[in-house]
Amino acid sequence: MTSKTRFLSIPYVVWMAIFVVVPIIMVVVYAFTAHDGSFTVDNFRGMTDYISVFGRSFYLALIATVLCIILGYPLALVLSREGPRLQRVFVMLIMLPMWMNFLLRTYAWMSILEDTGLLNALLTKLGLPPIKIINTSGAVVLGMVYNYLPFMVLPIYSVVSKLDRRLVEAAEDLGANPFMVFLKLIFPLSLPGVLSGITMVFVPSVSTFAISQLLGGSKNLLLGDLIEMQFLGSAYNPHLGSAIALVMMIIVVICMYVMNKFGEGEETAVVL
Amino acid sequence: MKKILSLAAVAALILAMFSGCGKGYTAEINVCNWGEYIDETVLKDFEEQYNIKVNYSGFNSNEALYSTMKNGGSNYDVIIPSDYMISRLISEDMLEPLDYSNIPNWSLIGERYKGLEYDPTNSYSVPYMWGTVGIIYNTSVVTKPVTSWDALFDSDYSGQILMFDNPRDALGIALLHLGYSLNTTSEAELEEAYGLLVQQKPLLQAYVMDQIFDKLESGEAAIGPYYAGDFITMHENNPDLAFCIPEEGTNYFVDAMCIPKGSTKKEYAEKFINFMCSTEVCTKNMDVVGYASANTEALESYIADMDEDFAAIMAPSDDVLANTEVYTNLPQNVLEKYDELWVELKS
Q: Is residue B332 helix, strand or coil?
C-alpha cells in the first residue's frame, strides 16, 4: 500500500481501536481487579469449579464444528462447479436465514423440536415413532450447526470457486484419478477456507448462550450462560465474568494456534 | 440512471422510516419498564396530553436493568423495577428521592402497597402493579388436586415439569416448600433448598422464563410456577390451565416507578409517574397486562366485572396475602451463595 492511500484505512483502525482493542483491554482489567478496583488474581482461583462447564462447551462446539465441515465442505465444492446463475441462487439461499434475527430462528427451532412440535407431529402422521430431542445436548448441537453452517460454507466456497481450473486439468493430464485430484490438489488448496470456517463456527459455538437456554432446557450451563450469569445474575460480578471470558479466549487462541500448526505451509486461518 | 433511481428509492424508503420523529415536543423522557408490561397506547396519550416524547424500552430481569444502570450506559428518567431491586438501588444511592407534591395521584394508590419493606418511608417509589407467584398446571394431565409446592416435585409428572430459570425464584420455591423464609441468609437453609432442587432436576423438562407461555399453552409441559397475571393471559389461549397459590405461602411482589439518580428531567418524569397512576391509565394497563394495579379504585372497579375466580387470582384477598412474603435485598455474600449453588446445580 502506498503512503498516499494509507489514510483510507484510518476510519477502520479507529473503529477497531474503540470497539475491539479497548473492550479486550477492559476485559483484562476487570479480570484482574476486585469490586473495589484493587489488583487481585482471586477471580481465577475458583476457575476449577467450572471445569465441567468448560469441558461441555468445548466438546459441544467441537461436535458442531465437525458436523459443519461434513455438511458444508461437499456443499461448497459441488456449488463451486455449478453455473454462475445457480451459484448465485444457492449463495443467497445459504445467506437468507441470516436475514432473520438469530433469536427468532432459535425460537422457531424450539417449536419444531418440542415433543408436541412440528417434527413429531409430522413423524406421527407418517406412522413413525416420535423422537425425544428437545432439551438435550443433541438439540443444542443442532442449533449451533443450523445457525453457524453458513460461516463454514461461505469461506470454503470462496476459496474453492477461485481455484485455478488449469491446475485440475494439469493433474488429470498427468494421470491423476478424481480422488487423487481431490486429495492432492483441491483439499490442500482449500485448507485456508476450511480453517477460517472452523474459526468462525467454533468460536461462536463455544460462547453461545441463547441456544442452550432455548433448545437445551437450560439444564446444563455452557460457558456463555456462565458468563452471562456473572453480568445479569443476582450477584453481579463482572470481574469473575471477565476472568472466565479471558480464560475462554486464551483456550480458544491456543486451539487456533494448534490448528494452524496442522495447516502449516498453507495460508494461516484468521485467528479470532 | 437506473442505479441512481434505485438508490433514490432506497434513500426515500429509509427516510420514510425516520419520518414522524421531528414533531416538536417540548421535552423527551426515557422510560424503561418490564417487557410487555403496559398498554403502549397510553404512551401516545401521554405524549399528546403533555407534549413530552416518551422513549420507551424494556428489560427482562431486574438484574439486567441493574447491570445496565451500573455500567453507566443508561440515561433513564423513569424505571419500574421490583421491590427487592428498589431496595438495592436505594442502598447503593442510585435513586432520586421523589417530590410527592408533584404526584397528586399518589393518593389513589392503595395503602396496602405503601410503606413496604423495600422503601419503608415512601421516598423513592410509586407502586405500579403487583401480584403473586403460583403454580400453573394443565388440568387434563395434572388430575390430583394441587395445593402445595410439592406438586412441582412430584415424580408422577416427570418430564412435564417446568421450573424458574433463575436462582432467586427457584431456590425461593424450595425454601418455601421447606417452610423457610424467602429472604433467609442462613447457609444451612439454602443448602437444604439446593438439595431439594438437585432431587427435582431429573424430573424437570426444562428451566424456563418467558418460554413457559409457549410450553404451557401448547401442552408441551403440564405444570410450572409463574406469575398470576400471566396465568390470566395463558388461560385465554388454553382454558385447561388452572392456577393455585400453594398453602406454604408464596412470593408477593410490587413493581414500582422510580427515578434514577442523574436524571435531568425529574419534573417531566414525575408528570409521567403521576399520569401512570390515574385510574383511566391503570385500567387500560390492567386490561392488557393482566396484573393488578396499585390504584385501588381502578383495581376494584376492574375486578368487579370479572369472573370471581379470576378476580381472586389477579388480586387475592388479604387472607391469602397474609401468607406471602416480599423479596428483600440480600447481602452480597448471600447473593454469591445463590449463584454458586445455581452453577453447581447446572454443572
A: helix
